[in-house]
Structures are given as C-alpha cells and as structure tokens.
C-alpha cells in the first residue's frame, strides 16, 4: 500500500517535470496563433504540423548557431581535456618541488567565477581583437581547473610500477603520459569531457557579450534575439526553443549513463 | 631559509629533502604551460586588471582618468547597490533551500525500488542539460498571465483572477525560483543519490532491528551520512544563485521596476549599457570579494570536519 503510494507519487512528479517540455513541443507543432491552453487543445492532434519549424529555420540562422555551438563545444572540450590531462600528469607523476605553489595557483581558479571578471575579461578580449570571434568563447573556456583536479585523482590511481617499468625501458615522460596515463584514465576523461561540453553548450552570459554578429552567434546566446523580434508569436518562440533543445535531449538520451556519472563525479569533488 | 628547512625536516621526516633540480622542475612545469597560458591570460590577468580598472574612470574605448577609490565610494553611497545586493541574496534564500530539499526528496524517492526507476531519474535530470535560454523561454510562456498554462491550471483549481507572475513584484521571484528549481534540481538529485549509495546498508538493518522507524532512520543515518555532500551542495548552490543572470535577463529584464535586478545584471548594465567600465569593474571587485568570503567560510567549515 505504502509502496503503491510512493510509486504513484513518483510517476506524478515525473509527469509534472516533463510537462513543460511536452507543452513546448506541442505548442511548437500547433499552427501559428493557436494556444495549448485547455485540455481539448492538448488532445487535439489533428492540426499538428511542422510549418513553424520550416519558418524558423528559413527566417533565422538558428541551424547555423547550432553548428557554432557544436564547434565551440567540441573544440573547448577536446582542448580542455588535453591541457588538463597534461597538467594532471605533471602534478601526479612528476614530483617537483614547486608543485605546491602551482597547485594552489591553479586551484584558485575555482574561487572566482567568470561572472565576476566580466569587465576586465571583455577588456582583454578587446585588446586581443577577439570580440565577435569564436575563439573569444573557446579560450576563456579553457581556464576551468576542475578537469585537472579530477584527472589528477584518477592518475594517482595509476600504479607506480607501470610508470617505473616504462622508465626502465627508457620511455620519456611524454610517452608515459601518452601511452600509459592517457589510455588508463579514458573513462574519467569521458566524464569530465561531457561535463565540459554541457558547460560550454549552455554558456550564456559571456557569449551574449562577446559575440556581436548574427553569424558568429551561438545557440544559447542567440535565442533571446527571438524575443526582441516582435513578429514572433508564442508558437514560433517555442519552435525556436524546441530546435535548441532537441540536440541536447538526443545527446542526453544516447549518453545518459555517462552524463549522470560525469556530473555526479564533477559535482561531488568540485 | 636554513631554519625553515630544518623545521620542515622535523615535520615530514619520512620525505627525503632533495635540492631543487632545475631541469626536473622545468620539465614538470613544461607540462603545466599549455594550461597556464590561457589560465593566465583569461583568468589571472583579468582579475588583476579588474582591480586596476576599478581605480579609474574607464570607457569602452580605454582608460580615461585615475580616480583612486572614487568608484567604490560612488557604489557604496548608492542605495541601488544595496537593493541589488539584497535581491541577489534574497534569491539565494529562496532558491538554495528549495532546490536542496527538493533534490533530496527526489533522490530519496529514486533510491527506493520504484517502477521504471531509470526513466524517472532521467526525467528529473533532463532539464539540467537544457540551456538557460531554453529554460527561460519555456517558463516565460508558461507563466504568461493571459495564455499561460500555469494560470490555466490555477483557474481549473478554482482561482478566479489572473496572477501576473512576471510583472507583480510579489510573485516574480517565485516564478524565477520555480524555473531555476526545475532546471537544476536534477543535478542536486544526482549528487545526493551518489551520497546515498555510499551509506552502508547494514546501518539501516541494525537500526531496523533496534526498532527505529523510517523517520528516525532518516534523521540518524541518512542525513548524517549525506553531510559531506550536503556541505558541498549548500555552497555550490549559494554561489550558483548569486550568479543569477540569464533567467532574469530573459524572463523579466530586471523588472517589474528594479525588483529582480541582481548583482551580475547591475554589473552588466553599468558596463555594457551605460559604458562605465571603471565603475562596473569596481562592482565586479566587490562581487569577487563576496565570492572569496564565501570560499573562506566554506574552507573553514569543511576543514573543521576533516580535522
């Protein structure tokens, strides 16, 4: 009995959670000007069509923004992982005397969020002539030290014997990293990578400031321009949101085990 | 120099003290350089430069005049600053407890053997992967006073006036909180789930034998078992709430009036709308200072537990 109540509560909560998304998709598929408001609107599926999608895709650069988001996300993630892995390798496997100083310096990167250094960051980007360039989004995205902390923990788990054996064979440290530490921390890198990708994909404030032209815009920062456009009806706005949400939802469904794991790992340690 | 070496020896007698090998040091640092370059240019330098800029009247075109602490004086004498600061902390008070409690409840539910457990967990987590603009768009329209489903549901439940969720200062913070909770509670849930799985099950068995009921077991085993995750989460959520920007920018534009303007939006408006970079840099420095204070408190609290 108690069990049944719990089950029903869980299902109801889940429905409540998924309701906004279903509403978004339903509204996006209704003809322009038709609201999903009453129960009758919910079950009337006869007027569903994809005209809104055609219209939004034709009249805006939303697919191009999706592409930009993807390129920036992949580049940020891949470069970040490599840099973090190299640094983690140094901290974990190369005992050097000044490591403490560098470690503290790098961990200090966790203290101050980008939001707090917006103004000088913009000034820096301006000086380097990066404003309205995708590298203005990628480069500051490489400064997150969380990857180093996480990957270091996993590299600490790589047995010393492996390293020593390789050293006796005359391997140089770069080879130790490339052919031992990198493959052995692959699963951790996937988790960290997914975390980085989500951060990059959903990054809003900085791209919103640093990208000024339509063609370099990324999805999350470009979406609000639909609001300032007064011709946009509710249905078209929901269509734009749906287009922005679909890739994320698909990726989530495909990789959900890794995503949940990666987020749990990064969150518990961070 | 000599003394510190001796002291160090006494403190860590097991570790052999080696002289600095310049080559070894450089080799290790060499591996840090690829990270340190962007880190210095896009993090360390802006922090330092921000402090410098905050002492100047500075437009978007460049430096104009050194004014010492005048920017800070101007900010601290402006009542707007305190109201935006209060708004930011008010949001922390609303959002952090609700998202933590809700996340814990969801984690406890998912931790039971319920129907289609993985699917339900995914549903709770799904909103977290959406971007803030999508989340804000959805809730902007859900909370629409005339055509929004939220009011429609309330009407169906017997309410006969429209609530102006986004333009009434009594409700607007709740609207933003609900949207934010929906967005980020899955993240909190996943972390609590990870914490729950680390509590040994035999503790529960023992408590059951002792006749403890579910409520007592929750208070004496589950909650203490989650304390380290909880501490991390509390601070994470406080900082996250203080960074509030996207939801406000898209859903309310800081309104009605100024009632949902936050610290970050204040910095954004001062710097990018009013073109007062120096003043905005000073605001940023104050924000940095608040962040550092929180970090210090967090460090003290987590440290005490470890010691």
Automatic annotation (TrEMBL), chain A:
Main location: membrane
Transmembrane segments: 7-26, 65-89, 101-122, 134-155, 176-199, 232-255
Topology relative to the membrane: Multi-pass membrane protein
Short name of any one Pfam family annotated for the protein: BPD_transp_1
CDD domains attached to this UniProt entry: TM_PBP2
Compartment(s) where it occurs, according to its Swiss-Prot or TrEMBL record: Cell membrane
Presence of the UniProt keyword Hydrolase in the record: no
InterPro entries with a match to the protein in the record: MetI-like, MetI-like_sf
Keywords: Cell membrane, Membrane, Transmembrane, Transmembrane helix, Transport
Domain ABC transmembrane type-1, chain residue ranges per copy: 66-255
Record flagged with keyword NADP: no
Family: Belongs to the binding-protein-dependent transport system permease family.
Protein name stated in the entry: ABC transporter permease subunit
Organism, as annotated: Paenibacillus phytohabitans
UniProtKB/TrEMBL annotation, chain B:
Keyword Cell membrane attached: yes
Residue stretches making up the ABC transmembrane type-1 domain: 85-298
Chief place where the protein resides: membrane
InterPro entries cross-referenced by the UniProt entry: ABC_transporter_permease, MetI-like, MetI-like_sf
Superkingdom assignment: Bacteria
Subcellular locations according to the entry: Cell membrane
Family in the record: Belongs to the binding-protein-dependent transport system permease family.
Protein's recorded name: ABC transporter permease subunit
Organism annotation: Paenibacillus phytohabitans
């Amino acid at each position: 009995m108690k069990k049944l109540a719990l089950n029903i509560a869980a299902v109801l909560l889940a429905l409540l959670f998924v309701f906004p998304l279903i509403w978004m998709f339903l509204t996006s598929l209704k003809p322009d000007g038709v609201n999903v408001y009453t129960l009758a609107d919910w079950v009337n599926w006869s007027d569903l069509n994809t005209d809104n999608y055609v219209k939004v895709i034709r009249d805006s650069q939303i697919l191009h923004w999706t592409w930009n988001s993807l390129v920036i996300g992949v580049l940020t993630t891949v470069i970040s992982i490599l840099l973090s892995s190299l640094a983690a390798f140094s901290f974990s496997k190369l005992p050097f005397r000044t490591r403490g100083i560098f470690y503290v310096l790098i961990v200090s990167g966790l203290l101050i969020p980008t939001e707090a250094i917006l103004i000088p960051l913009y000034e820096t980007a301006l000086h380097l002539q990066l404003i309205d360039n995708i590298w203005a989004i990628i480069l500051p995205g490489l400064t997150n030290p969380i990857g180093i902390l996480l990957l270091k923990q996993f590299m600490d788990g790589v047995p010393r014997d492996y390293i020593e054996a390789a050293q006796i064979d005359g391997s140089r440290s770069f080879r130790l990293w490339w052919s031992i530490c990198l493959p052995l921390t692959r699963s951790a890198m996937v988790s960290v990578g997914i975390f980085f990708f989500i951060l990059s994909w959903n990054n809003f404030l900085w791209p919103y400031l640093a990208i000024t032209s339509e063609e370099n815009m990324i999805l999350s920062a470009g979406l609000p321009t639909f609001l300032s456009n007064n011709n946009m009806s509710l249905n078209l706005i929901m269509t734009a949101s749906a287009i922005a949400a679909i890739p994320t939802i698909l990726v989530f469904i495909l990789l959900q085990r890794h995503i949940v794991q990666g987020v749990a790992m990064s969150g518990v340690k961070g | 120099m000599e003394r510190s070496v001796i002291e160090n020896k006494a403190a860590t007698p097991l570790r052999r003290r080696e002289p600095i090998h310049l080559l070894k040091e450089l080799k290790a640092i060499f591996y840090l350089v690829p990270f340190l370059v962007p880190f210095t240019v896009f993090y360390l330098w802006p922090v330092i430069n921000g402090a410098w800029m905050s002492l100047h009247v500075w437009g978007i075109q460049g430096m104009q005049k050194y004014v010492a602490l005048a920017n800070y004086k101007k900010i601290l004498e402006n009542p707007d600053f305190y109201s935006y600061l209060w708004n930011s902390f008010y949001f922390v008070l609303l959002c952090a407890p609700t998202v933590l409690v809700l996340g814990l409840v969801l984690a406890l539910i998912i931790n039971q053997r319920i129907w289609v457990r993985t699917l339900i967990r995914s549903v709770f987590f799904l909103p977290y992967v959406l971007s803030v603009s999508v989340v804000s768009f959805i809730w902007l329209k859900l909370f629409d006073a005339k055509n929004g489903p939220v009011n429609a549901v309330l009407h169906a439940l017997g309410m006969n006036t429209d609530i102006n969720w986004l333009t009434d200062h009594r409700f607007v913070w709740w609207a933003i909180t609900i949207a934010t909770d929906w967005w980020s509670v899955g993240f909190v849930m996943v972390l609590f789930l990870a914490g729950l799985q680390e509590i040994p099950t035999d503790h529960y068995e023992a408590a059951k034998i002792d006749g403890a009921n579910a409520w007592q077991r929750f208070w004496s085993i589950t909650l203490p078992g989650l304390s380290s995750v909880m501490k991390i989460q509390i601070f994470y959520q406080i900082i996250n709430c203080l960074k509030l920007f996207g939801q406000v920018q898209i859903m309310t534009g800081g309104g009605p009036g100024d009632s949902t303007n936050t610290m970050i939006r204040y910095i954004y408006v001062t710097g990018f709308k009013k073109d007062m970079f120096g003043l905005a840099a000073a605001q940023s420095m104050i924000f940095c200072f608040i962040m550092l204070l929180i970090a210090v408190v967090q460090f003290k609290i987590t440290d005490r537990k470890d010691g």
